[in-house]
Amino acid sequence: MEAPELLRVWVLAAVALGGSRATLPDHHVLPDHRVSSETGAIFVHELERDLFLTGHEDDDATPITFQAHLRDHPDLPRWLRYIQRDPHQPAYLYGCPTATEVGTHIIEVLAYNRHTYETVAQRLVITVVPAPGGDPPYQGEFLVGNRNVEELLPAAAQEIFLQSTAGVWDQDDLHVINITSALDRGGRVPLPIEGRKEGVYVKVGSHGTFSPCLASAASPQSLFRCSLGQQPLASCYDTFAPHFTIRWCNLTLLQVWPTPTASGPVWGSGVLEEDGDFQPPTDAPPQDLLPGFLVTLLVPLVVAVLLCLLLGHLMCCRREGV
User: Fold this and answer.
1) Residues 219 and 244 in one domain
2) Cys-Cys link to 240, which of 83, 105, 244, 258 (CB 3.0-4.6 A)?
3) Is residue 31 part of a domain?
4) What are the φ/ψ torsions at residue 45 (nearest 5 degrees)?
5) Domain residues for 112?
6) Is 229 within the bounds of a domain?
């Protein structure tokens, strides 16, 4: 190839490379978003699509997907979950932090525009603080059969559920502790038929005792009726209907009491009191290491001698013609 032709090829390659770099998708970085959460209560953060749409694209038909992970880690912390049913719907980060998660968690969120391939990044700073009143000692877990997990994450849906719960558990301090998909608890994936849902476990807590209605629904007699395929015992009206279908045979009531913390050792000043005499520890008696030394040395030596004698006998006395 002549020199002018080679130069022309290099120029075309450089132009093509420069054009490809000029068409790379944009990357935007949003300011940090700071939120707080208490232990023993559900934390829900919605990743709003409008916030991550850049420029003139504000169409609801724009598909956007998200990726979220803990900073310097490949995945989210174990108490936090991510859900997005469809690229045209918002995504949620949700979970219930415990006392071991108290502190600051920095979540890095990256949004992808599936039409333009643009990316938008944002850091979510979550500060987990201990609950002022501690974890509620009375906790009830309900299985909602006609909902998916993302349908109960909005605050409005949780408020409706708490109002329905107050009808069977008359307490003023009811609050949602955790929301978990039934698939995460070993449930089966529903058939792709309209109206079929995955099911959601909703844990509600209170500092007040359980109502007689809940106690009877979770009694051994009620569980026995459930094992026979009969309706469980319920002495009150089901206030969850028609919004929520509660599977009463899966009702779980827990009483969680705080474990007393063991007091640690009391450290002194390190200075002896007056007229205090230091008593050094008594000398340890000397150990006789000779038997162990002889066993360690003589046993392998005897075995080696026997093997040598056996090998010599086989080689010298068992040869053909000897």
Assistant:
1) yes
2) 244
3) yes
4) -130, 120
5) 25-129
6) yes
